[in-house]
Every structure is written in C-alpha cells, then in structure tokens.
Amino acid sequence: MKLLGLKKNWKQWLSLFCLCVGGGTIYKLPYIRDVFYVQFQEAFGATNTQMGLMMTVYAITCAVSFLPGGWLTDLIPAKYLVSIGLFTTGATGLLLMSIPPMSVVLLAQGIFGITTTLLFWEAMFKGVRILGSAEEQGRLFGLLEGGRGIASTLISFAALAVCAKLGEGKLGMQGTIIFYSVVLMLLGVMCFFLMDKNPVEGKINARECLAGMVQVLKLPKVWLAGLIVFCGYASYQCLSYFTPYLVDVYGMSASMGSVISIIRTYILAIIIAPIGGALADKKGSKIKFLQYIYVIGIILALLPVFIVPGDGTLILMVIVMLCVAATVMVLRGIYYSTTAEINIPVVLAGAALGIMSQLGNAPDFFLQTMCGWFIDSHPGRAGYQMVFITMAILCVFGMVFCMILYWTNKREMEKEKKVDFKVTDADIL
C-alpha cells in the first residue's frame, strides 16, 4: 500500500495506525477537564482550585518523566512501552469510576504522568522513527500528527455521546471515564499484537543506555533540536489566545469562537500536518524546512498587531488566525522528526527524544501564566497584542535555532565528523 509516496507493508501501516489512535486517545483521561470541566467538577464536588491542582500534579510528574523515559525507550522495544503505557493508563482510569475523594484523583493524575510520559511519549515517537528512512521522517511524523488529530476528535465525540446518553450527572461522568478506560486498555492489547519490534531495539543493556544518554546529553545539536521544539510548542500555546481575542475584541459569539477553535485545533491538524510532512521530505532537510516555516510564522503572528478591529476586518482576522494555525500545525507535525537528520542512531533515539521533550514542554511551566498576566494587566486589545508579539519573538528564536543547527550539522557532515557512540549497533541510523 502506498500513501504520500510511502510504500509500507500492512504491518507497518497497522503500527502507524496504532500509534496514531493511541497518541490521540491516551491524554483524554488526564485532560478530562478540558472537555468535561463542569460535569467532572459537579460529579466529584471539586473546587476550581482542585481542578487546577489536578493539572499541576500531572505536569510535575510528566516533567520528571521525560528524561528517564528516553532512557527506558532505548532499553525496551517501543511496542512494549506503547502497549503497557496505554493499558496502564486505562487501568488507572478505573480508579476514578467510583467517584473517589480528591486525594485519589490527584494520585491518579500522578500515575497518569508516569504512564503517558515515562512509558508512552518517547516510545510513540521512536515507534514512528523506526518505520522509515531519514528521507521519510517528515511524512511519517506528519501522518502521526494528523492521525492523532482524527483519533482525538472521534474519541471525544464518542465520549460526548456516552455522557449525553447517560445524562450529565454522576452516572454520565462514570460512563465517560469507563469508556475512555476500556478503549485505552483495548488499544494497549491491540498495539501489543499489531506493532512489530524493530531488529535494532532491545540490543543494549541498562548501562549502555545510560552511557549513550550521557553522550547524547553532551551533543549541542540535540539541545538545539530541543530548543526548536520549545519555540514550536510555545507558539502552539499562544495560538489558544486567538479565539478569546476574536470574542473579546471583535465581539464574535462564544459559540462561533468554539467552532473556529475546533477547526483550528483539529481539522487543520488532520489536513495540514501530513501535507507539511510531505513538503518537508521533498525539501530534503527537515531543519531547513522548519526554518522557512518559522519565517512565515513571524510574519503571520505580527499581522494581528496591525489589523485594526472592526466589522470589516473580522473575516480577515479569522483568515489570518487560520493561516497562523496552519503554520503552527506544520511545526508540530515535524519538529520531532530531526533526530535522523542530525545522525542520532535508532538505538539512542529515545535519549535524544527525552532531551527534546524535556526542553520542548518547558513552556507548560510559565507561558500560559505569562500570557494570562499580559491580558489581565493590559485589558482589551493591548494584552492580546503582547501575546502575538511574544509568538513572533518565539518564531524568530525558532528560525535562529534552525539556522544554527542546519549550519552545525552541515559542517559536521562535510568534515565527516561522527560521534563515536560506544553502544551496541550505534552505527544503525
């Protein structure tokens, strides 16, 4: 079967399918408040502070899991980690079906941080990495992002249907939790039987994994790749303020804003990410392609600063917002695909992905708070303009990091300079 010029056997396509569906579903339980905030709060009798604390606990456990998750991903084949991560996330969700005290909910959130990050996150990306050559990484990662978007959308609507069928009270919340849990546990079993183990996986022991991670930690190229992810993910977070800008400044209705938000977050990811991946592969260098995308991001992020709000500019602003969203979705689709280009071997891809994830997700600790302060302290258009300028600055840094990484990588290739990874099968890229 051939798609976007990728010719894979049915096992490989099934592996990618499993990773897409698993990646689009596994975060539904820890982020259940995003869709079912009111229902969850009423069923559990939680305060708004406790709802916020849920995400704090999850964020902390995720943060401490990224680096050891990279080490674990190089030690254990991806299919096992993906399967266990999905199954244990679903099993942990069953702790919540009896509507336990908030202390149990917070415990579950901490476990979710371990199962979704330590076990699943880097294993998902490594599972995609081993499905193709360096020339195919853009399309594979683009398909992963688009597939995750499709899976996330379908699962969310299915969960909403379950909740509506059982009512929006405690029973509806219990049904939704059980639905997510069972789906995740089934996906874990499916991934175990459908995903293939790559011949190079599981070839190094714990000591070699640790030694390899130390070597990877010393590579400036990996840190630059992580900073590229940082800028892209931070830009994605800034994107969430476009909808309230349309509502607060342009007077758009909240319901219409939600519709545009769905299009921006899900529909564009489904369509744009695979196309962006294909274009990146055609360009050859994913790093160079990311540089061009960041340049486009700079221009588009600054446009709202100069567009004066008014009835005649609302449609223009919506178009600009969707263009910005499309640009960011291209970034998200391929910014983890650079490990092959910077010559990180497959057996140590987990270590590199762990560092990149640690850096890339760092905006979770401060960016939303900073942007919220901008808007609160500078009411109206001024606060949002500060957010858009921040996004443009992030794109500038992203572009610069891409330029430095591309130049560094090119210079090393010209000099045939290679890192001598002292681990088994480290020559396999």
Summarize the structure.
The protein is mostly helical and 429 residues long.
State the distance separating the first and last CA atoms. Answer: 24 Å
Largest sheet: 2 strands, antiparallel
Q: Which range best describes the helical content: under 10%, 10-25%, 25-40%, 40-55%, 55-70% or over 70%?
A: over 70%
Shape: globular
Strand content: under 5%
> Could you say which structural class the secondary elements and strand pairing correspond to?
mainly alpha
What does the average pLDDT come to?
Answer: 88
In total, the number of strands is 2
State the order of secondary-structure elements, H for helix, E for strand: EEHHHHHHHHHHHHHHHHH
- Helix count, per DSSP? 17
Side-by-side strand order of the widest sheet:
1-2
**What is the gyration radius calculated from CA atoms?**
21 Å
Low-pLDDT sequence parts: none
Descriptive account of the structure:
With 429 residues, the chain is an all-alpha fold. The protein has 17 helices and 2 strands. It has helices at residues 10-25, 32-44, 48-63, 66-75, 78-93, 102-129, 137-166, 170-194, 206-217, 220-239, 242-248, 254-283, 286-306, 314-334, 349-360, 367-377, 381-414, and strands spanning 2-3, 6-7. The protein has a two-stranded antiparallel ribbon. A hairpin with a 2-residue loop joins strand 1 (2-3) and strand 2. Helix 4 (66-75) packs across helix 6, helix 4 (66-75) crosses helix 9 (206-217) and helix 12 (254-283) packs antiparallel against helix 13. The protein is globular, with a radius of gyration of 21 Å.
